[in-house]
Every structure is written in C-alpha cells, then in structure tokens.
C-alpha cells in the first residue's frame, strides 16, 4: 500500500473560516494531487504539484490554494470556506512506471455549515 | 457536459456470475483508460487499465474491453465475489500517466449477492 495519510479525516466548520487539509506521503513521489468528490460530479481535480514549490491549477481550483514546501507534504487551503465546498477531498500520488496510476489517501470529509 | 459516462448508477449480480460494467466516452483524444474501485470511507484503488492500441487487457478475474470506434469500454469481472461489491469508476486520459487531464465517470455501484 502506498503510504499516504490525510488529516483531518473529518471536519465540520462554519462558513467564512479558513480550513487546511494535509496530505502526507512516505513514498517520495514527485507528483501529488488534490481531488474533490461530489454526487453527480465524480472526481474533479482541484490542484496538483509536480515538485517542491511547483503547483498548478486543476479543473475546479477557485476558492482553493495549495502549498508544497516539502516533498512529503501537500497542503490544501480553503481561505474562507463556503457551503459549496462541503465535499470529500482525496489526495493522490502518482505511481511509478509508465502507466502512472494514482494511489489515493482515505479521504477527508469536510462539512461547511 | 460529461466526457466520460457510466450510464448505470448501480448493478446487482449473483456471486459466481459475470459482472459487466460499461463506460462511454465522447472525446476522441482519449487514448488511455483506467478502472478504479472504491469501498466506502476509503480512497479509490487502481484496478486495471488499457491503452487504445489494444482492445483487451486481462488481469486475473478482471478484463477490460475497448471498442474505440464505438467509444465504449467495459469491465468484466468473472466470477463475481461478494468482496467485489464497491463503486467502480471509469477514467480516461489523452495518454498514459497524464493525470492532470484525467476525466472521471460518476461511478457504478456494484452489489454482488451471496
């Protein structure tokens, strides 16, 4: 199993508060991703990183920022949470080999009231 | 506008029988296709993939078929086991390893009944 841990696993917060989700990997992989999963939308890419301090936007990046100061940690920040950001958030790392399949963390369920 | 469609939200089969999960796509630029399985409260796990240069890829009980002209792929599980009960996601990309451009279907929930 790929060594990916997400924290917190569950969080309830109020609209307008900042929230940071953490993804930690022990695999030393270069590529890391943040997805959100919502009913009716499948998995959508929020941001990804291709190395320390190298990040880029995905399909649904508005309202989110990321940081990667170390290879092992990829942080997702909601500067001012909104109810539309209630979702399950998954971190993933890019596997080795030509197929490059993704290995996912267990998810972080965020509820914004 | 769904580029990857899994038209059956759910499927129920008997243990030991074949499960067939379908996926259609609209973008002719997709060249690489993957299936992931997801259990409740866990992240998705990679199951099997296929490149457009092939029409079939097999891994144990799991076989993926690709019909490029019809823009259709299917995942066959034979024989189905209760532990296969999960949500199955189809995903497509312009090329292998290009996860930045990976597009996901909505998933099909498979229930395998003992």
Structure keywords:
heterodimer; A: 113 residues; mainly beta; 7-stranded mixed beta sheet; 4-stranded antiparallel beta sheet; 11 strands; 0% helix; globular; B: 114 residues; 6-stranded mixed beta sheet; 5-stranded antiparallel beta sheet; 53% strand
Structural account:
Chain A has 113 residues and is mainly β. Chain A contains no helices and eleven strands. Chain A has strands at 4-7, 10-13, 19-25, 32-38, 42-51, 54-57, 65-70, 73-78, 87-94, 102-104, 108-112. In chain A, strands 2, 4, 5, 6, 9, 10 and 11 form a seven-stranded mixed sheet that branches. Chain A is globular. In chain A, 38% of the residues are buried. Chain B is mainly β and 114 residues long. Chain B is globular. The mean pLDDT of chain B is 95. The interface between A and B is medium-sized, with 26 and 22 residues.
Produce a short descriptive summary.
Chain A is mainly beta. Chain A contains no helices and eleven strands. In chain A, a hairpin with a 7-residue loop joins strand 9 (87-94) and strand 10.
Please compute the radius of gyration of chain A using only Cα atoms: 13 Å
* Parts with pLDDT < 50 across at least 5 consecutive residues of chain B: none
Beta-strand proportion of chain B: over 45%
H-E order of chain B:
EEEEEEEEEEE
**DSSP helix fraction of chain A:** under 10%
Helix content of chain B: under 10%
- Straight-line distance between termini of chain B: 37 Å
The rounded Rg of chain B comes to 13 Å
Average predicted local confidence, pLDDT of chain A: 93
Major pleated sheet of chain B: 6 strands, mixed
Task: State the low-pLDDT regions of chain A, or none.
Answer: none
Indicate the multimeric state.
heterodimer
């Amino acid at each position: 199993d790929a060594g990916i841990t997400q924290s917190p696993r569950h969080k309830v917060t109020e609209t307008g508060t900042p929230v940071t989700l953490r993804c930690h990997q022990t695999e030393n992989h270069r590529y890391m991703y943040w997805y959100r999963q919502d009913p009716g939308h499948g998995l959508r890419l929020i941001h990804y990183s291709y190395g320390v301090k190298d990040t880029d936007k995905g399909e649904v990046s508005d309202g989110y920022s990321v940081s990667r100061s170390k290879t092992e940690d990829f942080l997702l920040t909601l500067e001012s949470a909104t109810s539309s950001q209630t979702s399950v958030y998954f971190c993933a790392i890019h596997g080795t080999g030509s197929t490059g399949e993704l290995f996912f963390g267990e998810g972080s369920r965020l509820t914004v009231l | 506008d769904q580029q990857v469609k899994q038209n059956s939200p759910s499927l129920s089969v008997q243990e030991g029988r074949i499960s067939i999960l379908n996926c259609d796509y609209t973008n002719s630029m997709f060249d690489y296709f993957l299936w992931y399985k997801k259990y409740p409260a866990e992240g998705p796990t990679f199951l099997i993939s296929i490149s457009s240069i092939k029409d079939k890829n097999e891994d144990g009980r799991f076989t993926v078929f690709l019909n490029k002209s019809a823009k259709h792929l299917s995942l066959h599980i034979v024989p189905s086991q209760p532990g296969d009960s999960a949500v199955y996601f189809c995903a497509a990309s312009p090329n292998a390893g290009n996860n930045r451009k990976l597009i996901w279907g909505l998933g099909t929930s498979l229930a395998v009944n003992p």
